[in-house]
Amino acid sequence: MKSSSLRWHDRIGAFLENPLIIAAELLVVAVLQALQAIRLISAALIYLFVIGWLSLWLRRSSWRQLGLSRPTSWLQTIGIGAGVGLVYQAASIWLIAPLLQRLTHEPINLSQVTPVNNDLPLLIFWLAISWTTAAFGEEMVYRGYLLNRVADLFRRSRAGWVIGLVVSSALFGFGHAYQGITGILETFLFGGVMAGLYLAGGRNLWLLIISHGVYDSAALVLIFLGLYP
Questions:
Q1: 66, 74, 146, 219 from 142: Cα distances, Å
Q2: 144: Cβ–Cβ under 8 A, 6 or more apart, which residues?
Q3: pLDDT of 11
Q4: What residues contact 56, with CB distance under 8 A and at least 6 apart?
Q5: Structural domain boundaries in the chain
Q6: Does residue 1 carry a pLDDT above 60?
Q7: Dihedral over alpha carbons 103, 105, 107, 111 (to 10 degrees)
Q8: What does pTM read for this prediction?
Q9: Which of 22, 101, 133, 198 is 20–30 Å from 68 (CA)?
Q10: In this predicted model, what pLDDT tens digit does every residue of 34-70 receive, in sequence order?
Q11: Dihedral sign, CA of 95, 180, 86, 49?
């Protein structure tokens, strides 16, 4: 009986490697992201995480294989991740966001987190959200699952990874539609940097999680202190 179930599992896994099935899977993801962008559903990240987990389980893969395994050096991973997060946040505040605002004539909509200003309990709440939902959740879904799944569609060729970088970053950007067009563009660029870091850093998700968490935390602390936006 167990052998039979294993065979069925393997057959389903092989079926999910069919390019048409991969394309259909990615289409479902894109539709969910679009529905969130136009506010017909909320918390699309939860649905995407479930789809990603189920897809990995059926294909006998895991988050560990996508980069959530123990890094060779925690000290190096934390140092590089924190450095990238801080540097990119500084670049975003003083260079990227102002340039995008000149292009779109619209500031990034940060109304969701601006109440953090001088509110310590709210700051702690949003720091917890940024490290769980954003840093862990978004990096696992957009870089761990989606980037790899798009690359699967193109047999993990060099062009496939480039397309995966663009597609996963675009979906990541549209996932932040509540920040307005400038927020979408800025998040798309940040997603591209994270995807590039993932590929350059040996596909280490911890590197991205730390970088993303520090990036968001720096912004929240600046908002709390009244220094940003």
A1: 11, 23, 5, 21
A2: 52, 63, 66, 67, 68, 205
A3: 82
A4: 62, 63, 65, 66, 145
A5: 2-224
A6: no
A7: -140
A8: 0.94
A9: 22
A10: 999 999 998 899 999 999 999 999 999 999 999 999 9
A11: negative
CA-based end-to-end distance of the chain: 61
Output the six-digit token pair for 145: 């699952």
Q: Look at the block and give the residue holding tokens 């294909």.
A: 59
C-beta of residue 212 within 8 angstroms of C-beta of residue 138: yes
39 conformational bin, left if phi > 0, alpha if psi -120 to 50, beta if neither:
left
pLDDT category of residue 5 using cuts at 50, 70 and 90: low
Q: Where are the beta strands (DSSP E) in 51-151?
A: none
Residue type, 205: L
Rounded CA-CA distance 84/210 in Å is 9
State what percent of residues in the chain have pLDDT above 90. 89
